[in-house]
Amino acid sequence: MLFFGPDGERQPERDVRERKAKAICGGCPVRNECLDYALSRPEKYGTWGGLNEDERASERRRRMRRAASAGISAA
């Protein structure tokens, strides 16, 4: 599957798979909604809204910092 890697996937294969998944996400009309959904769960695995697991963790931290500086709760 393109959006979720198989067990034992090696990094070179993962990089290729993620690039293909992100290319599909790039043209998706609900990309932002998909990402918001994944960030609100949090979804631990796969490509959601054009971001992989590590990128979503960074985005989640960024949103929490931004919300904290604005004095609101993060989504």
From TrEMBL:
InterPro entries reported in the protein's UniProt record: 4FE4S_WBL, Whib
Residue span of region Disordered: 48-75
The protein's name: Transcriptional regulator WhiB
Superkingdom: Bacteria
Domain 4Fe-4S Wbl-type residues, every copy: 1-58
Primary localization: cytoplasm
Pfam families hit by this protein: Whib (PF02467)
Annotated GO biological process: cell redox homeostasis; negative regulation of DNA-templated transcription
PROSITE patterns: 4FE4S_WBL
Post-translational modifications: The Fe-S cluster can be nitrosylated by nitric oxide (NO). Upon Fe-S cluster removal intramolecular disulfide bonds are formed.
GO molecular function: 4 iron, 4 sulfur cluster binding; dinitrosyl-iron complex binding; DNA binding; metal ion binding; protein-disulfide reductase [NAD(P)H] activity
Similarity comment: Belongs to the WhiB family.
Subcellular location: Cytoplasm
Any one of the GO CC terms: cytoplasm
Cofactor: [4Fe-4S] cluster
UniProt entry keywords in alphabetical sequence: 4Fe-4S, Cytoplasm, Disulfide bond, DNA-binding, Iron, Iron-sulfur, Metal-binding, Transcription, Transcription regulation
Binding note for cofactor: Binds 1 [4Fe-4S] cluster per subunit. Following nitrosylation of the [4Fe-4S] cluster binds 1 [4Fe-8(NO)] cluster per subunit.
Function of the protein: Acts as a transcriptional regulator. Probably redox-responsive. The apo- but not holo-form probably binds DNA.
